[in-house]
C-alpha cells in the first residue's frame, strides 16, 4: 500500500449548482459563515443538524470542523446538495476526494551523526518538547522506536488526547507518543463499518505505513536494528526526542478528505508544531483541495506542514501537494543498497537489488529460467507477464526462476504468485516507464529487481535459448558507501507544478529509497497477507519516506529557532540544499542515469546542518499568500474558501504577478505569441537571521539564452531581523518550438557573505501555444 502510485478521478463542484442524472449520495464538505450561527442553537453542530433537517430526512452530520475550517461534512444527494448550497450561510460545497498513501542510515547520510550527535541535535535538545503530528495509518505503539526513556514530562502546552479503543488501551501512550486519535466517519459513510478482520477501529496501525513514517520523523534510538539481517545499525528518527501525535485517517479503502480535514482540525487545536502528511492525489485548484485548505490554516497558525510529492515519476507534471504554503518533498537515494545479482547461463552478470532473508537458492546451482509472458497461453499473455493473481500455471513455473514484468499489482505480490505456483525464484523487470530505478523489497521467495534495459536483455536471452535458459540469483547483503549518492529516485514525482507553474515543485528532495524504520507486529515485511514473518523494522521506499525526514528536520529547526515561521523554515531548507552527489558531480536521475533537472529535485537535497544557520530567509505572511491567489486569478469567493477571510484583489493585482510571491525559488513562464523579446521580473525580500553586521554580494548563474540582472547587487545588513529587498529582471528571446512544445532552462541567484551561501533556483520555461 505504501508504494502504490495513486490514480484518482476527481469530480469538481463548488459554488455552482450540482447537476446529475441520479440521486446517488456522496459526501460533501460544507463551508459555512462562522459568524452566521443564530443564538438559538447552543452549538455549531446543532445548527448544522438543523440546516440538514430542513432539506432532508436522511442526511446527517459526519464531522464538524472549527479550527482549520468552519463547517461540517455530510452525505448528500445532488438535489440535497443544491438545496443546501442555496442557504445564505453556506459558502461552498467541496466534493470529497479519496487520497492514497505515497509510499538506519539516513541520519548518518544527512550529517546528523559523526558518529556522535552533531551540534544540530545537541543545540536543539534532539527536538525535545516539539510535537510532530502524523496524519497517516496510525501507529504500533509497542515498538522500541516509541519508547520514552530519558524523556521529560509531556509539554504543558499539549492539549491533545490519547483515545483508547479496540486493541489500543490508554497505556499505549507515554511521554513519546503523547497523542493518538482516529477518524473513520468519512470512510464509513461511504463504505460501511470498518472491516474488523483487516483493520483496527482505533489508532493502531494495520498497514505499517504510519508506524514507518512516525519512526522516520521522530523515532527514539534503537540499537541492533535491521530487517531480515539487512541494514544493521542504530536506528533513530530525525528528531529523536520530539513527541509524536498520530491521527489515523487511512483505512484499507483509502484516505477520505472529510477524515483528513477532521485530523488537521484536531492536530492544530491539540497544539502540534509540525504536521507530516505522506498522502496525496491528483492536483485540483486550491479551493477544491482539502489538503491545501487545511494546511493553509495550519501554516497561518504557525504549524509547519510537510507533504510527499507523490510516486508518479519519472514522468513530468506528476507532482502533487503543490500549494505554495506546503513543503513538498521528493525522494532521493542514500549511500546504501542491497545488491542481488542475476547470473545467466551464458555467464552474463546482471545487477539487481533485493531484501531476502529466507531459505535461499542452492549455491552454484543454475535453475531453469522462463518469462511469465509466454508459455501457458502459447503466446503473449498480459496478465501472466505481470504475474497477477491467478495468472500463472504451476506446470509452467514449478521449479523455475520466473521473470515477471513490473506494474498493476504490488512487487511482492508477484513473488507470492510465483511462490504459490511452485516457482523457486523471481526476477522482477522494470518497464520502459520505470527506467533503471530499482527498489529493494522484502520478498517472500528468492527474488531480485532489475532495470528496464536488463529486463530486455534477460528476455532476449530466454528467447534465444528456447528451453535451455538458466539463471541463479546471488544475494550480497548490505553495501555501504555507494557512489554516486544522492540520486533522484526514479519513482519520485516531478514538476512542473500543474496548478501554479510560477511556483517550483517539488521544493526539495530527501532520503526516500530503501529506508529502514519501525514496522508493526501484525504485518509481514512484504505486506503480502500470507507472509507470516515478523520483524521490528522494515525497509520501504517512496516519497512517503522522504516527507517525514523533512518533518523531523523542521522540528529541529523550530526547536533551534522558535520565532521562525513555517515559511522561514522552508526557506532555510531550500536555500541551503545541494545539487551535487558524493562524487562532487551533478546529481543524476536514477531512471535514466543522466544528470537530473530542476523539476526533478526543486532546490536540491536537504542539508540539515547548513539549514540550521542559513544566513538569510525568504519569509511569507498570510497576506502574501492572499496576494498570490489574487494574482493567480482566483475569485474572491474561492479565496474565501481557502483562507476563510474576505479578499480585495484590486491592490494585489496592481502590485505584480503570482511569481512575486516571496518564494525561495523563482520560476518564469513565457508564452511565445510571435514576440521576439520577452522579459519579466521578481521582487524578493530577505530577512537577516545570521550575523548582525553582514554584507551579501550576488552571483548570477543565468539560465541559457537569458540575460539576468539583480538590483541592488549588494545587501548590507546592520542588525538581525532586518529586511532588504532586491529585484531580479529576466530577459529572453524567442526560441524555435513546435506547437504545444516547451523549452526549460535553469540557473540560480546566489547571495554570499563570508559565512553563508543562500541559493535560489531560477527557472525559465518557454512555451509555444498550440494555435
From TrEMBL:
<feature type="active site" description="Charge relay system">
    <location>
        <position position="136"/>
    </location>
</feature>
<dbReference type="InterPro" id="IPR045051">
    <property type="entry name" value="SBT"/>
</dbReference>
<keyword id="KW-0865">Zymogen</keyword>
<feature type="domain" description="Peptidase S8/S53">
    <location>
        <begin position="127"/>
        <end position="594"/>
    </location>
</feature>
<keyword id="KW-0325">Glycoprotein</keyword>
<protein>
    <recommendedName>
        <fullName>Subtilisin-like protease SBT1.5</fullName>
    </recommendedName>
</protein>
<dbReference type="InterPro" id="IPR010259">
    <property type="entry name" value="S8pro/Inhibitor_I9"/>
</dbReference>
<feature type="domain" description="Inhibitor I9">
    <location>
        <begin position="27"/>
        <end position="102"/>
    </location>
</feature>
<dbReference type="Pfam" id="PF05922">
    <property type="entry name" value="Inhibitor_I9"/>
</dbReference>
<comment type="function">
    <text>Required for arbuscular mycorrhiza (AM) development during AM symbiosis with AM fungi (e.g. Glomeromycota intraradices).</text>
</comment>
<feature type="active site" description="Charge relay system">
    <location>
        <position position="209"/>
    </location>
</feature>
<dbReference type="InterPro" id="IPR015500">
    <property type="entry name" value="Peptidase_S8_subtilisin-rel"/>
</dbReference>
<dbReference type="GO" id="GO:0048731">
    <property type="term" value="P:system development"/>
</dbReference>
<feature type="active site" description="Charge relay system">
    <location>
        <position position="544"/>
    </location>
</feature>
<keyword id="KW-0052">Apoplast</keyword>
<dbReference type="InterPro" id="IPR036852">
    <property type="entry name" value="Peptidase_S8/S53_dom_sf"/>
</dbReference>
<keyword id="KW-0732">Signal</keyword>
<dbReference type="GO" id="GO:0048046">
    <property type="term" value="C:apoplast"/>
</dbReference>
<dbReference type="GO" id="GO:0009610">
    <property type="term" value="P:response to symbiotic fungus"/>
</dbReference>
<keyword id="KW-0378">Hydrolase</keyword>
<dbReference type="InterPro" id="IPR037045">
    <property type="entry name" value="S8pro/Inhibitor_I9_sf"/>
</dbReference>
<comment type="similarity">
    <text>Belongs to the peptidase S8 family.</text>
</comment>
<dbReference type="InterPro" id="IPR041469">
    <property type="entry name" value="Subtilisin-like_FN3"/>
</dbReference>
<dbReference type="InterPro" id="IPR023828">
    <property type="entry name" value="Peptidase_S8_Ser-AS"/>
</dbReference>
<keyword id="KW-0964">Secreted</keyword>
<dbReference type="InterPro" id="IPR034197">
    <property type="entry name" value="Peptidases_S8_3"/>
</dbReference>
<dbReference type="InterPro" id="IPR003137">
    <property type="entry name" value="PA_domain"/>
</dbReference>
<feature type="domain" description="PA">
    <location>
        <begin position="367"/>
        <end position="458"/>
    </location>
</feature>
<feature type="signal peptide">
    <location>
        <begin position="1"/>
        <end position="20"/>
    </location>
</feature>
<feature type="domain" description="Subtilisin-like protease fibronectin type-III">
    <location>
        <begin position="660"/>
        <end position="764"/>
    </location>
</feature>
<keyword id="KW-0720">Serine protease</keyword>
<keyword id="KW-0645">Protease</keyword>
<dbReference type="Pfam" id="PF17766">
    <property type="entry name" value="fn3_6"/>
</dbReference>
<dbReference type="InterPro" id="IPR000209">
    <property type="entry name" value="Peptidase_S8/S53_dom"/>
</dbReference>
<dbReference type="Pfam" id="PF02225">
    <property type="entry name" value="PA"/>
</dbReference>
<dbReference type="GO" id="GO:0009609">
    <property type="term" value="P:response to symbiotic bacterium"/>
</dbReference>
<dbReference type="GO" id="GO:0004252">
    <property type="term" value="F:serine-type endopeptidase activity"/>
</dbReference>
<dbReference type="GO" id="GO:0006508">
    <property type="term" value="P:proteolysis"/>
</dbReference>
<dbReference type="Pfam" id="PF00082">
    <property type="entry name" value="Peptidase_S8"/>
</dbReference>
Amino acid at each position: 500500500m505504501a508504494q502504490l502510485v495513486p490514480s484518482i478521478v476527481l469530480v469538481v463542484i463548488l459554488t455552482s449548482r450540482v447537476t446529475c442524472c441520479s440521486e446517488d449520495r456522496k459526501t460533501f464538505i460544507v463551508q459555512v459563515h462562522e459568524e452566521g450561527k443564530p443564538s438559538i442553537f447552543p452549538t455549531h453542530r446543532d445548527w448544522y443538524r438543523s440546516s440538514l433537517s430542513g432539506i432532508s430526512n436522511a442526511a446527517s452530520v459526519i464531522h464538524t470542523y472549527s479550527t482549520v475550517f468552519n463547517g461540517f461534512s455530510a452525505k448528500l444527494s445532488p438535489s440535497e446538495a443544491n438545496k443546501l448550497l442555496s442557504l445564505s450561510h453556506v459558502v461552498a460545497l467541496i466534493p470529497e476526494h479519496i487520497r492514497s498513501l505515497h509510499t538506519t542510515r539516513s541520519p548518518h547520510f544527512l550529517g546528523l551523526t559523526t558518529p556522535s550527535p552533531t551540534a544540530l541535535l545537541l543545540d536543539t535538545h534532539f527536538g525535545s518538547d516539539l510535537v510532530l503530528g502524523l496524519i497517516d495509518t496510525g501507529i504500533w505503539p509497542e515498538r522500541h522506536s516509541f519508547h520514552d526513556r530519558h524523556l521529560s514530562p509531556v509539554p504543558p502546552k499539549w492539549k491533545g488526547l490519547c483515545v483508547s479503543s479496540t486493541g489500543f488501551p490508554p497505556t499505549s501512550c507515554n511521554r513519546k507518543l503523547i497523542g493518538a486519535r482516529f477518524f473513520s466517519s468519512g470512510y464509513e459513510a461511504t463504505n460501511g463499518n470498518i472491516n474488523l478482520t483487516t483493520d483496527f477501529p482505533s489508532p493502531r496501525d494495520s498497514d505499517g505505513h504510519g508506524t514507518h513514517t512516525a519512526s522516520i520523523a521522530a523515532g527514539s534510538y534503537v540499537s541492533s536494528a535491521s530487517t531480515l539481517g539487512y541494514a544493521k545499525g542504530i536506528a533513530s528518527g530525525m528528531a529523536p526526542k520530539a513527541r509524536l501525535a498520530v491521527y489515523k485517517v487511512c483505512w484499507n479503502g483509502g484516505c477520505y478528505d472529510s477524515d483528513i480535514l477532521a485530523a488537521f482540525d484536531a492536530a492544530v487545536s491539540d497544539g502540534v508544531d509540525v504536521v507530516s502528511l505522506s498522502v496525496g492525489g491528483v492536483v485540483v485548484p486550491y479551493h477544491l483541495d482539502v489538503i491545501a485548505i487545511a494546511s493553509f490554516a495550519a501554516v497561518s497558525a504557525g504549524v509547519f506542514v510537510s507533504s510527499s510529492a507523490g510516486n508518479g515519476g519519472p514522468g513530468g507534471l506528476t507532482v502533487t501537494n503543490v500549494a505554495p504554503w506546503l513543503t513538498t518533498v521528493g525522494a532521493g537515494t542514500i549511500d546504501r543498497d542491497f545488491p542481488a545479482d542475476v547470473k545467466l547461463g551464458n555467464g552474463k552478470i546482471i545487477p539487481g537489488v533485493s531484501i531476502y532473508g529466507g531459505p535461499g537458492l542452492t549455491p552454484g546451482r543454475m535453475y531453469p529460467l522462463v518469462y511469465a509472458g509466454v508459455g501457458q497461453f502459447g503466446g503473449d499473455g498480459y496478465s501472466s507477464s505481470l504475474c497477477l493473481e491467478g495468472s500463472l500455471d504451476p506446470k509452467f513455473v514449478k521449479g523455475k526462476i520466473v521473470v515477471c514484468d513490473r506494474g498493476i499489482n504490488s512487487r511482492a505480490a508477484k513473488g507470492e504468485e510465483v511462490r504459490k505456483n511452485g516457482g523457486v525464484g523471481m526476477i522482477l523487470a522494470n518497464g520502459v516507464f520505470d527506467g533503471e530505478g530499482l527498489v529493494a523489497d522484502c520478498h517472500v521467495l528468492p527474488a531480485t529487481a532489475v532495470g528496464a534495459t536488463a529486463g530486455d536483455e534477460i528476455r532476449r536471452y530466454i528467447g534465444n535459448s528456447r528451453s535451455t535458459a538458466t539463471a541463479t540469483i546471488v544475494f550480497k547483503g548490505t553495501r555501504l558507501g555507494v557512489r554516486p549518492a544522492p540520486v533522484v529516485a526514479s519513482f519520485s514525482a516531478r514538476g512542473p507544478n500543474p496548478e501554479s507553474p510560477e511556483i517550483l515543485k517539488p521544493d526539495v528532495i530527501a532520503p526516500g529509497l530503501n529506508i529502514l524504520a519501525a514496522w508493526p507486529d501484525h504485518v509481514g515485511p512484504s505486506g503480502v497477507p500470507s507472509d507470516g514473518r515478523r520483524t521490528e523494522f522494515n525497509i520501504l521506499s517512496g516519497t512517503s519516506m522522504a516527507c517525514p525526514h523533512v518533518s523531523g528536520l523542521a522540528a529541529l529547526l523550530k526547536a533551534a529557532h522558535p520565532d521562525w515561521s513555517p515559511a522561514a523554515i522552508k526557506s532555510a531548507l531550500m536555500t541551503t540544499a545541494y545539487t551535487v552527489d558524493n562524487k562532487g558531480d551533478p546529481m543524476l536521475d536514477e531512471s535514466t542515469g543522466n544528470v537530473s533537472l530542476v523539476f526533478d529535485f526543486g532546490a536540491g537535497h536537504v542539508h540539515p546542518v547548513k539549514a540550521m544557520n542559513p544566513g538569510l530567509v525568504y519569509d511569507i505572511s498570510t497576506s502574501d499568500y492572499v496576494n498570490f491567489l489574487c494574482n493567480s486569478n482566483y475569485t474572491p469567493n474561492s479565496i474565501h474558501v481557502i483562507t476563510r477571510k474576505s479578499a480585495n484583489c484590486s491592490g494585489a493585482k496592481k502590485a505584480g504577478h503570482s511569481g512575486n510571491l516571496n518564494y525561495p525559488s523563482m520560476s518564469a513562464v513565457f508564452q511565445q505569441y510571435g514576440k521576439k523579446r520577452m522579459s519579466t521580473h521578481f521582487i524578493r525580500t530577505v530577512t537577516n537571521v545570521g550575523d548582525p553586521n553582514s554584507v551579501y554580494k550576488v552571483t548570477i548563474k543565468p539560465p541559457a539564452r537569458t540575460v539576468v540582472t539583480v538590483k541592488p547587487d549588494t545587501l548590507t545588513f546592520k542588525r538581525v531581523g532586518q529586511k532588504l529587498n532586491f529585484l531580479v529582471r529576466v530577459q529572453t528571446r524567442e526560441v524555435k518550438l513546435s506547437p504545444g512544445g516547451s523549452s526549460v532552462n535553469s540557473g540560480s541567484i546566489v547571495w554570499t557573505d563570508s559565512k553563508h551561501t543562500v541559493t535560489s533556483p531560477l527557472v525559465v520555461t518557454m512555451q509555444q501555444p498550440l494555435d
